[in-house]
Structures are given as structure tokens and as C-alpha cells.
Amino acid sequence: MNPLLKLESVCKAFGGLKVTNNVNISVMPGEISAIIGPNGAGKTTLFNQITGNLLPDTGKVLFKGKDLVGQTPQKIVFSGIGRAFQISSLFPDESVLDNIKVACLSRMNKTKKFWRPMLKFKQATEQAYAILESLGLESQAQRFAFELAHGDQKLLDIGIALALKPELLLLDEPTAGMSPEERKVTQNLIKKLWKEFDLTLIFIEHDMDMVFDIAQIVRVLQQGTLLAEGSPEEIQNNKEVITAYLGEEL
Amino acid sequence: MKTESRFRETSLWATIMIIFGLVPVFMTSTYQMNLASHILIWILFATAFNMLWGLTGMLSFGQALYYGLGAYFVGLMVKYLGSAWFFPGMAIGLVASAIIALLIGLLLIRVGGVYFTMLTLAFAQLMYQIMFKWYNFTGGDDGVVGIMQPGIFSNPIVYYYFILGIVIASIWILKRIAYSPFGMVLRCVNQNPDRVRFLGRRVRRNQLRIYIVSSVFVALAGGLMVGVDNSIHTDMFVWTTSGEVILMTVLGGINQFFGPFVGAIALILIEDIVGAYTEYWSLIIGTIVLIMVLLFPKGLVGEFLQLKHRFLKLKKHGG
Ligand SMILES: Nc1ncnc2c1ncn2[C@@H]1O[C@H](COP(=O)(O)OP(=O)(O)O)[C@@H](O)[C@H]1O
Ligand SMILES: [Mg+2]
């Protein structure tokens, strides 16, 4: 089987700081994997290079065999890569429903329609509700996005990404700022979404319970370098990883 | 629920039509009809302007450019080619404004925030200078006077109803745009442009589209004005004209579709009433706007809706 996403010798420096240092990664279709590493390791920057926010200095980002380097985020979205952000990126003054619905309309290529009222796009509404149900947010549909609790905002952010029907979904610290109980719920939810939507999923996470519970493969980044890669057991027993990152935690 | 909102929508438009439609019937002097014409045209100007600012988050300080262009195409064509060119001049003015908005817009969308605002001002002032200096062709500071509409449209009452029809139709079109998926994308561009890119949509492309749409409707307002004042003047291009629609919008409410509508009525009536008593009317208007911004930042429409919302909530809890 060919990898869905393949990073080949990706490098990126900000000034003198090598934030991505010759990273090689192959992600197989259907895989759920985690990227871990200390703050500032370059995890978000790696996502940014996959989704087109940032241009790698050198290297290739192959998605289904095609190099994405140089393409705009808009193009990359439609080739099948979705993304939720470390800090929720929503449309705060729109309803929860419309946050998702506008993404559905974009996928259906209907955002140029300037005459028919939003309300008349029933199919998009149904799809949006279906996604809200999957997220357990349907009771909040009519509230403004800014009114939601922090945890629900993180979910809504994922919902917007899901509405675009991605094959590969990138989640940047989905449980950041959540209480331990919320984290447990979100962990189960992410696993459910992964199956329900047939996703290939990569998440960045600091909650090691979640990482070792649901990831099939764990990759460790440190100072821009891929320090280790393997199954949760392999990573948990990896001497280098323990000294560099996991430390006394285990 | 759905039929109820449709009923409310229809009665809103009917009320507007009736109130403005009755002005020529009940007026005691043509001055009142002239005032109502000004109000209607500024309503269109301000509403089109707010498609940029309130809806999309692009504060233009230079929409007077298109207001002037729309007017000058009508005025100059009538001056050089005769009355028959009044309406064709209006149409040509709209097309020309669309093309100029496209060209200037391509440059404007490259910069954001305050730079966008300053550039719009610069382009409008540039056009003002051209019209001002090109005396032989434009009449410079004297403008052009005595511009007449052809045929029955030279009758002020006929022309008033013509304005009423065009303005109401334009507002209706703009409202449909605001509440369409395209309008939704514009609101999203306003609130979170970065995320819009991750919906697969181009931010600048959408900004350019609405810039053109807004400018064309502003040009229409300018073209209509020529038949009211029967003259054109370089003041139409000047920055205070752009500033006036900003004041109207702030007064009525930036985030409400009908904010500029109400703001235009309020500002023109205040100017008219206060102006009759004192020459310091601009001081009074400045004070009113200052109070509005400080105490009622949501504007007349926004604050009214909030009050209504609170009242309904109270009633629900009380009963
Ligand atoms: N646009 C940028 N310009 C300069 N430095 C940046 C930029 N983005 C990130 N960095 C730096 O790159 C490093 C990695 O950042 P980031 O990828 O956000 O880390 P992580 O997500 O692993 O915490 C940090 O030192 C950060 O300050
Ligand atoms: Mg990060």
C-alpha cells in the first residue's frame, strides 16, 4: 500500500532556528497517529507546511503521490486535507450551525450564490446538523459560536474541518485547555469520528494517556527533528524519548 | 414561523414604500419631496457602503469616488450630448464604475486594515483633484448646473417615484446578497479571514467582488442625485462626502443591515432641523455622533433590537 501522506526531507528555518530539520514521515491510509514533543518542537509548524500556510525551505510534501509544496491552502483543502487549530478558529458572530453550514456550502461549491437566501439551502443544513450530531453539539446549533464553552469551541473547530469531508484530518492539540473529564470525552469522540468518517488522522497532543490509548503510531519531534517513531509500546520504552521528553512521567 | 417572517418582511417593505410614496401626496411644499429624495439616495449610498464595512470589514473612506463618478457621467453626458443621454449616461456610469472598481480594487485588496482605508481616501482625493483641475471639461469648482432629465422625468414628482423605485429595488437586491451564501462568506471574511482560506475560499477574491458591487450601487446613488439637484459639483468626490456615510452608518448601527438606512434618515433630518435654527449644526451633529459612539455603540437599530430582545425575554419570564 502507498502512503497517503509522505514528507520527504522537509526542512524549514526561521532565521537561524531550524524548526523542521530533515523530517521524513510516511502516513498510511486509515492510520490514526500522534505527534508529540515539547513546546516549540515544531509540531504546529509541520502542520503549517502540510496545509500550505508555510512553504518548506526544501523537501516534498506528497499527498496521494502529488507534491503539494507551493499550493495555496484553498487548493490543499479541496485535495482532501482538513485541519483544526491549536487555538480554535471559528466565526464567532455566526451561529454554531452556520459555522458548519458555510463549510458545507463551500464544499458543494455554492458560496458564490448571491441570490438565494442561506435558509433555502436545505441540503447543506441537513449535512451540518448531521455533523453537529456526531459531535454532540446539536442542542447548541442556534447559539453564537462565541457563546460556547471552550471545549465545545474546540469541537466546533473540528466540525468545520469535517464538513469539508477530508481524507486526512490534522488536529492540533484537540484537548488543550480542557478539564480531565472533558479530555476523556474528547478522546473517545475523536476515536469515534476517526471510524465514522473513515479518516486518516494525525493529532498533536500533550495528554499522554490519550496518545498511548488511541494512536496506532506515535512520532516524537524534538527541536525540529524526528526523534523516534513507532507503536505506543515502542515509544514508551524508547530510552532516548524517555530522557528527552517523557522523563519521570513514566 | 416561516410564514410569519415572510409576513413581517413584506410589511416592512410595504411600510417603507407607503411612507415614502405618500410624501408627494401630503407635502406642503416641494422642499419636503426634495428632502425625501435626498434621504432615499443617501440611504442607498450608505447601505451600499456598509456592504463593505459592516458586512465584510473593509472600511472605505473613499466611496465618494464612485458617488462622484456616477453623477459626473450623467452630468457631463447631458452637458455635451443633450438630455437624451441622461439615462444612458447613468448606465455607462455604472459600467465604468464597475471597471474602475475592478482596477483600483485589485490594488486595494493587497493591503488591509488602515492602509486599505487610507488608499481608498487617496484614490478618491486623486479623482477629486482631476475633476477640480480639468476645468475646460468638467467645469472645475463651478461644476455643471441646469442638467435636465428627458421627457416626463423632468417632472419632479415622476422623478421622485423613479428614485423611490430604484432605491427600494437596490436595497432589496443588496439585502438578498447580504443573506445569501456569498453574504455569509463575506461575514466570515470579516470575522476570521484565515479560516475562510481553510474553507477553500479566497479572501481577496471575495473582497474584490463586494468592492465592485458596493461601488456600482454607490455610483447609482450618484447618478440619481443629478436629477434631484440638477447639477454636479466636485464636492461629490470630496472626503467629507465619504465621511458622511460613515457617520450615518455609525448612527444607525454598523452590524445591522438596516442600520445605514435608519442612520441616513436620522442624520439628514437632524441636519435639516438643526440647520434651520443654527449655523453650528455640524457641531451639534458631532456631539450627537460622539454620544452615540460612546453610549450606544450598536447604533439606533442595534440598540433598539437589543431593547426589544430584553423586553421579550422579560415578558416570557414574567408571564
Ligand atoms: N512564523 C514564525 N516565525 C518565526 N518563528 C516561528 C514562526 N512560527 C513558529 N516559530 C518558532 O518555531 C518554533 C516551533 O514552533 P511551533 O511549531 O509552534 O511549536 P510547537 O507547535 O511544537 O509547540 C518556536 O520556537 C516558534 O517560536
Ligand atoms: Mg503548537
Describe, in plain words, how this protein is organized in 3D.
The complex is a heterodimer of chains A (250) and B (319). In chain A, helix 3 (96-107) packs parallel to helix 5 (150-163). The mean pLDDT of chain A is 94. Chain A folds into 2 domains: 1-80 and 166-250, P-loop containing nucleotide triphosphate hydrolases (Rossmann fold, 3-Layer(aba) Sandwich), CATH 3.40.50; 89-165, no CATH class. In chain A, 37% of the residues lie in helices and 24% in strands. In chain A, a hairpin with a 2-residue loop joins strand 4 (58-63) and strand 5. Chain A is built from 9 helices and 10 strands. Chain A has 250 residues and is α/β, with parallel strands linked by helices. Chain B has 319 residues and is mainly alpha-helical. Chain B is built from 15 helices and 2 strands. Chain B has helices at residues 2-21, 23-26, 30-55, 64-81, 86-108, 113-133, 135-138, 156-178, 181-191, 193-197, 203-229, 239-252, 259-277, 281-295, 299-318, and strands at 144-145, 231-232. A two-stranded antiparallel ribbon of chain B has the order 1-2. In chain B, helix 3 (30-55) packs across helix 13 and helix 13 (259-277) packs antiparallel against helix 14. The mean pLDDT of chain B is 93. Chains A and B meet through helix 2 and helix 3 of A and helix 9 and helix 10 of B. Residues 43-44, 86, 172 of chain A line the site of magnesium ion. Residues 14, 19, 37, 39-45 of chain A line the site of adenosine-5'-diphosphate (ADP).
Write a compact overview of the structure shown:
The complex is a heterodimer of chains A (250) and B (319). With 250 residues, chain A is α/β, with parallel strands linked by helices.
Search tags:
heterodimer; A: 250 residues; alpha/beta; Rossmann fold; 2 domains; six-stranded mixed sheet; four-stranded antiparallel sheet; B: 319 residues; mainly alpha; two-stranded antiparallel sheet; 2 strands; 1% strand; globular; binds adenosine-5'-diphosphate; binds magnesium ion
